[in-house]
Amino acid sequence: MVFVPNTVSPISRMGNDDLGPPWLKPMLRASYFNPCSIHGDSNKSECNMFCLDCMGTALCSYCLINHKDHRVVQIRRSSYHNVVRVNEIQKYIDISCVQTYIINSAKIVFLNERPQPRPGKGVTNTCEICCRSLLDSFRFCSLGCKLGAMKRGVPDLTFTLRMKHNRDSFHGGSESDESSTPKKIQRTLMFNRSMVDSPAISSDGHYNYGGERSYSSGDEALTNISPGTPPIFNHRNARRRKGIPHRAPF
């Protein structure tokens, strides 16, 4: 028996997980914004939807009734190029290294490459596939260009989402409870805490924290942060000076 070594290249042995989910290529290759072959006579029957579960052709809004509980993304168009919103696609794939753009107040990514053979003057960073000028923090201008680099065997690229670990999974709380609190409320909390932490000596010689005695517990001090009620001022007694005799009128 003759042993034949495996001569298959590493790229050809890659599965769908290594080159993205199985629906990625059909989504990039689909034809969008054509009249639907089924609902072409209806208004707004442009095919601008794609079902990630069926991985078929583009869909129109009337076709969605047959795709209930499926993952569907909407394809949009910018400058005659197909785009998808970041908040829709980033739930399913990792779009890192792909430059994002803001169009109509929404962050988007392009589906396929947009070649630019002559970058402008002063451009220092371009797409590794189609040479389109990019910001310095990105490597590709579209999802298709990132996929093309992965086919070439460029390391450290993936479409697989990574789990994000934060303090919630370890400590049962967020990283900062005050990070999502409005600044005005934060300033109020800081002021109240300073009232609690700053002692004041009362008339009976005890330390008061925000109007409460020092022998109160910490939780009580935080809940009773309002200042104590001042004593009632007697204006009649204030007019009389101690030690000065009252003279009879002339």
TrEMBL record:
Where do the record's region annotations for Disordered lie?
Answer: 226-250
Residue stretches of biased makeup (Basic residues): 236-250
CDD domains, per the entry: Bbox2
Which residue spans traverse the membrane? none
Show the Pfam families listed in the entry.
PLATZ
Protein name per the record? PLATZ transcription factor family protein
- According to its UniProt entry, this protein's organism is Quercus lobata
Underlying gene: LOC115974733
